[in-house]
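Course assignment 3, question 2. Fill in each field.
Student: A.L.
Task: Predict the tertiary structure for the chain below.
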Amino acid sequence: MRIAIADDDAEIIAFLAKVIDGMGYQSVAFNDGERLTQALLRDTFDLVLLDWSMPGRNGIDVIRWMSETLEDPPAIIMMTNRTAKEDISAALTAGADDYITKPEEDHVIAARIASVLRRSGNSGAMEKIAQYGVFTFDRINQKVILHGEEITLTAKEFELADMLFRNRDRTLSRAYLMEMVWRTSASLATRTLDMHVSRLRSKLHLGPENGFRIFTVFGYGYRLETLAPVGD
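Answer field:
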């Protein structure tokens, strides 16, 4: 999971980054709302921890912008020192999934993060065997079965394929895929991701006949699209 932290308080950012790291997730920090919105246009996050009062854009403005601009906005937790009921109502009405009042204990924040990720379908919990149309993913043995036949994939090819199928019909940025699969920055990669995507297209025979295709979103990343069965 990749979680964005937007807060203009460096101590709060460091505290939240430690909580997120302790959960086994990755964090990316922003100290104003405008920088966050710019990042959301080019990158993928599973959750945003959002302060209310920030330079650039305030938290409410960011939530409204996300709803109006992003095709698939991430889950949002508003985390602020505002305690008035009308503020809580305004944030939740605007689109926040949860509201945390500062200060709060680290274990409570972790629990609230986990809860929101579960509700949004991004908890990270995975079945050992997953079925996607004609594809069967065996996550224990890292195997893909297509029409009863095993497809030979490398460890990274399987991990990338699994990531794409788990996030089917969701556009994922290059940075997100590089960090989730290769645990590195997209800026360090040459054509590693593109080569692996090309191999998956070929090895998994992705196309209308099998119900899925990998669509390139130029300047952003990739999306595994669910296609209508042939003949529909």
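Instructor remarks: The mean pLDDT is 89. Residues 106-119 form the longest helix (14 residues).
Grade: pending
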